[in-house]
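Objective 1b: paired records.
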Amino acid sequence: MPTSIARQTERQLGGPRSVLVRQQRDHQELDRLVHAIDASTGREREELLTDLARLVFPHAFAEESVLWPVIRRAMPEGRELTLQVEQEHQEINELWSQLEQTTPGDGRHEQLWPRIVGLLREDVRDEEDELLPRLQERVGRRELVRMGLAWEAVRRIAPTRPHPVVARRPPGNAVAALPLTVLDRSRDALDRISRRSEGRVSRVAGRLSSVAAGLAGRLEHVPPMTVGEDPSTRAGRTGRG
């Protein structure tokens, strides 16, 4: 049984530039943000939810673009292992899309949030205890660093919002990356302006964010962006009830 990356030192994981260390750091930040969100309300909660989305969705996009293709090539069981995580990612995308339509404190928000947190923690466990240790067994330190650099580069320019219709695999996710990243990061900035401003500035920023959201929603359905999807991770196919 491989050792979870959560129980290994930075040196054991390949050094500070290793993809395993980068993953571990993001998982620790995810846990910190979840606790902060649970302790917050109102606009502070909305700000923290934006911070969490800007962590979770680029992180997952980089995994699906850089790491999972390597794992599918490197190990016989790679397809099944990555598919399980992709299904978790897809369900998080679908639930978070619903969460964006709610307001902190209302009933629907309070129902969705614990389900999302449960899935996020399940995803972390599957990656730290199963998927990433198996990758560690297959590749050397130099390759872990190379993958870490590629993963970080993709993460920095990836979409920051849920896009449940876009494929979880290339080529669809690669085609979607640039336009959705521009729209998502514009929405992040506009939403922050809206929350931190008053009057006309707040209203205009909010309207522009809604326009960008509508455009992103239409772009998701453009056929090239859905190519490469496994049938089990198509939108609407992953719900657990």
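Objective 1b, second protein:
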Amino acid sequence: MGDQTTMSRRERLRAETTAEIKEIALKLMAAGGPDAISLRAIARDMGMTAGAIYSYFATRDDLVTTLIADLYTALVDRAEAARDAVPAADPGGRVLAWAQTVREWALANPQGFRLIYGDPVPGYQPPEDTPAKEAEHRACRGLTGLVAAAWTGPDPGSYTWSDFDPGLAADIRATFPDLPPDAVALTLRVWGRMHGLVALEIYGHLRTLTREPAAIYHDEMIALIASLGLTPPADRPPIVAS
């Protein structure tokens, strides 16, 4: 009993320290860019020795990989939950729920958004198989599913499966066997419209031009939904920054 209690306490302390390491890494990135993420700098900030922090993450790349995996998974979890809270009979509402949740998450986690989609970490080489890769596949499948609910395009069309990354093509063909490659091209265009304005806002470009970025994003998503031939929901207000 005593050993179990001691082990539980150790696990809890380790989890708390790991969370603090991740938090400080993102703060360093916010202050100095991706190149500022350093295990030694984090150790100094926490009052730890370099040797002690290496017992949590053997290398900086291990830390970056864990950060990206955690952040990407959290983002996709939120987007999927928001989508699934809208009935399948309302595909336009599901598109808007996904899009607004992505923006909401990005505004609450700007450094996380930048780490996933924006700023490359100098010298970082992501492993081939990580939870981040699975989260990326989930995001692709989620967006493709939104497009699939609206797809009425021709088959064959302008694209072939060889126009896309082999891993992406194989994943989409296995999940959506009836979709043609043109639907994947449309999915990428949808992704670009969803993320383009978010990226402009996160990097500070949009707010220099308008005081209503939420309204602009909302209107763009309504236009996107209409372009897919879906009925835009009229009762879902834009999500504003907190």
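The mean pLDDT is 89. The longest helix spans residues 2-32.
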